[in-house]
Design a protein that fits this description.
Blueprint: H1 18-27, E1 39-41, E2 50-52, E3 62-72, E4 80-88, E5 96-97, E6 100-101, H2 108-123, H3 126-137, E7 141-144, H4 149-159, H5 162-165, H6 168-175, H7 187-198, E8 205-208, E9 214-216, E10 219-222, H8 230-239, H9 243-260, H10 273-276, H11 285-301, E11 304-306, E12 313-315, E13 317-322, E14 328-333, H12 342-356, H13 359-377, H14 393-407, H15 410-419, H16 422-425, H17 439-451, H18 456-476, E15 478-480, E16 482-487, H19 504-518, H20 524-536, E17 538-539, E18 544-545, H21 562-574, H22 582-596, H23 608-622, H24 625-646, H25 664-675
Antiparallel strand pairs: 1-2, 3-4, 5-6, 7-8, 8-9, 9-10, 11-12, 13-14, 15-16, 17-18
Helix pairs in contact: 2-9, 3-8, 11-25, 12-13, 12-14, 12-25, 13-14, 14-15, 14-17, 17-18, 17-19, 19-20, 19-21, 21-22, 21-23, 23-24
């Protein structure tokens, strides 16, 4: 009886904000019933395997994303219990035709049409339908899912280990961890959870559909636990049904299908850098700006805004990339980071407002940054957080500093310097190390802010924090193949990478920037060593670099491959590093970027727009004006054939991503970057 399940979050602080509102919108939407395709990702798996456990989307055998118990060597002396990723087979819920499981992607229009017809039937007969609901479901028992059942199962299994079974007190201490960070949590629930688990049971709670009380094992354990009886909430939902809500629900259905059916072939742009170089005609800068404004207005209209607080905040619901390997999409609130979330969208809106003079964009950027600021205000530095430039806390400070510069807001300056010390406090807890999420990205942000800071005291603070992150990188480098060839792990996985976003090229680039700004020649040996692994992964056959030491993949983007390597080489040159190989490597990376790296997709992260920004930076550093002119011509073709035609639907792999690096905000940002290259920063180098 999911339609009667009330909202409950054990970590809910009780404060209203737009993220909570967005989460409630999703939880109250057609997605919540579990029928539409939705994938579950296990970030702890090296291959980031995901599975679709929905009612319609599991027509094929899948590898489980969660380990289950397996008995090995049954009926033998060496019988043992192991935990392995099992196989999930299609079950009876899967639609079949003539006995054959049907792939849901082939029935998107039928699903959408059937939902709309049923919705309109109910909304057109509300009174009659509400009476049926009341007659059928008044006074019924409804299960309340306090926590995911599999979490109970994992904790129960851990508590049955012999180390915890020797003494009941040890088991109770382990199970008491249920109470950690449980802000909005009744102590009777915690007591009941622990009691059930101690008895070997999965905790189970119930509500009466017509009551506000919480039950467990037939007893009331919390009176007036919820604000409104479940059946009243459902009746209110029926009353609110209408065309506006129907459009939103159909949009959720569309996003669900797009997130499931991501197809890289949909990204192919057909762009050839050299073919575009001979196109004549003028550049449509007015049209570029006009389209960016249209995109900005669309993003504003798509916002989820919280206006209950003293100051408004906003966020967005979108298809969002999950995991390091960026192969799984989910429909979620966008989060706070620069890559997918609020920070990236806010940076775009802030510069759109700066260029157009329209205050509503800058106001929206401030509102979007209130969620990251709330997170910063509530941090517990005893626990690890990602601190990098695109997927971590560093990105929050980067965007706040740009907002400060655009608006000359001294209050923001005070805010930044009152809190930026946490990037030093958290450095020792970083286990990712790279530019996107780790210490290298933190150095990138700190040096970027340093370049635009006048005060000597602030500069000293920024450099000190940057050195804490540099020292952390040096302590955690691990030899690969030879003592003087260091690489860095990514969490528990030691698979050193060559590229800019996750590998040694990006780490070396921002080490060189720190060395330049701090006038510290002692950093040069660390840069030299970091480049050894990158150089070891060069493929002469491909004139490109393998993404990782596994040598299974050659890429062509900022994140992995020749364009990102080129950007690293340019930064090394820009900040005074030099060696015998650097000039030749730069030319190789430049040649491969121009001849082999276009046409795959339009994104900033690993597509044509990002590669154009890298080549624009190349033209600036090397003084190659002909490259700049080529880039403008290529961008004009991208505008005419891709951006202007795709921006409303299917920005990346056919999804409706709103984010900066692989989404709609990236389209809008690129349009204003090419309109005003001296005003809008190059995001790929954290300018």
């Amino acid at each position: 009886m999911h339609i009667f399940h009330p909202y409950f979050n054990i970590n809910d602080s009780g404060e209203d904000n737009s993220f909570k509102k967005a989460r409630l919108i999703i939880d109250d939407s057609v997605l919540s019933v579990g029928i539409l395709p939705q994938r579950i990702l296990n970030n702890n798996r090296d291959d980031e395997e995901s599975a679709d456990l929905s009612g319609l989307g599991a027509a094929e055998e899948q590898c489980s994303p969660i380990k289950g118990i397996k008995i090995e060597n049954r009926d033998k002396d060496d019988i043992r219990i192991s935990r392995e990723y099992g196989v999930i087979k299609p079950a009876q819920n899967v639609p079949r035709l003539s006995g054959n499981p049907q792939v849901v992607d082939n029935y998107k229009e039928e699903v959408m049409d059937g939902f709309a017809r049923m919705y309109l039937m109910i909304s057109g007969n509300k009174d009659r339908f509400m009476k049926i609901v009341q007659d059928l479901f008044s006074g019924k028992s409804v299960r309340l899912i306090v926590r995911p059942t599999y979490l109970y199962g994992q904790l129960l299994a851990a508590s049955l280990h012999p180390d915890f079974m020797r003494d009941r007190v040890h088991r109770k201490i382990l199970l008491s961890r249920l109470g950690l960070y449980a802000g909005n949590y009744n102590h009777m629930i915690l007591h009941r959870e622990q009691k059930d688990l101690l008895g070997g049971d999965i905790p189970c709670f119930n509500l009466n559909s017509s009551s506000r009380h919480l039950y467990s094992r037939g007893r009331v354990i919390a009176r007036d636990f919820i604000e409104t009886p479940p059946i009243d909430t459902s009746l209110d939902k029926i009353r609110s049904m209408g065309m506006t809500d129907l459009v939103m629900q159909k949009n959720f259905i569309a996003m669900s299908f797009k997130a499931r059916g991501t197809d890289a072939s949909k990204d192919i742009t057909g762009i050839d850098f050299h073919d575009c170089a001979n196109i004549g005609g003028r550049f449509s800068t007015d049209k570029w700006l006009s389209l960016s404004i249209e995109i900005g207005d669309y993003i504003l209209k798509s916002s989820v805004i919280n206006k209950n607080a003293a100051t408004a905040d906003r966020t967005w619901i979108s298809t969002v990339l999950l995991g390091k390997k960026e192969i799984t999409w989910s429909v979620e609130p966008v989060g706070n980071d620069l890559y997918n979330g609020n920070c990236g969208i806010a940076l775009y809106l802030a510069y759109l407002g700066n260029i157009t003079g329209r205050r509503e964009y800058i106001d929206a950027a401030f509102e979007a940054m209130r969620l990251p600021m709330m997170e910063l205000d509530g941090l517990d530095t005893n626990h690890p957080y990602t601190i990098g430039a695109f997927g971590g806390l560093g990105s929050y400070f980067y965007v706040l500093d740009h907002l400060r510069r655009i608006t000359a807001n001294n209050g923001l300056k005070d805010y930044i310097y009152s809190r930026i010390g946490i990037l030093g406090s958290l450095a020792d807890k970083d286990t990712l190390f790279d530019v996107v999420s780790g210490s290298a990205g933190c150095i990138a942000v700190l040096t970027s802010i340093f370049e635009n800071t006048a005060g000597e005291q602030e500069k000293r603070l920024l450099i000190d924090i940057a050195y804490r992150n540099y020292d952390h990188l040096m302590k955690n480098r691990r030899p690969y193949n030879a003592p003087d060839i260091p690489g860095w792990s990514y969490g528990k996985v030691f698979e050193p990478a060559s590229g800019f976003s996750h590998g040694n090229a990006g780490i070396a680039a921002f080490m060189s920037k720190l060395a330049f700004l701090a006038n510290d020649a002692d950093i040069k040996p660390a840069i030299r060593d970091a480049l050894k692994l990158e150089r070891m992964l060069y493929s002469e056959k491909h004139e490109n670099w393998h993404s990782t030491v596994l040598k299974k993949k050659i890429s062509h983007g900022w994140c992995h491959g020749a364009p990102g390597i080129l950007l690293s080489k340019l930064m090394l040159l820009q900040y005074g590093y030099d060696d015998a190989q650097l000039e030749a490597e730069t030319e190789t990376a430049l040649r491969t970027t121009m001849t082999k790296s276009f046409g795959y997709n339009p994104s900033l992260c690993h597509g044509d727009l990002g590669n154009l920004l890298i080549l624009m930076h190349c033209a600036k550093v090397l003084g190659r004006h002909e490259i700049r002119d080529q880039c403008l011509r290529v961008f004009q073709e991208l505008y005419e054939n891709i951006i202007s035609k795709k921006w409303k639907d299917g920005v990346f792999r056919g999804t409706t991503s709103l984010g900066l690096m692989v989404g709609l905000a990236g389209f809008g940002y690129s349009l204003i970057k090419f309109c005003e290259p001296d005003i809008v920063p190059n995001i790929l180098i954290l300018e």
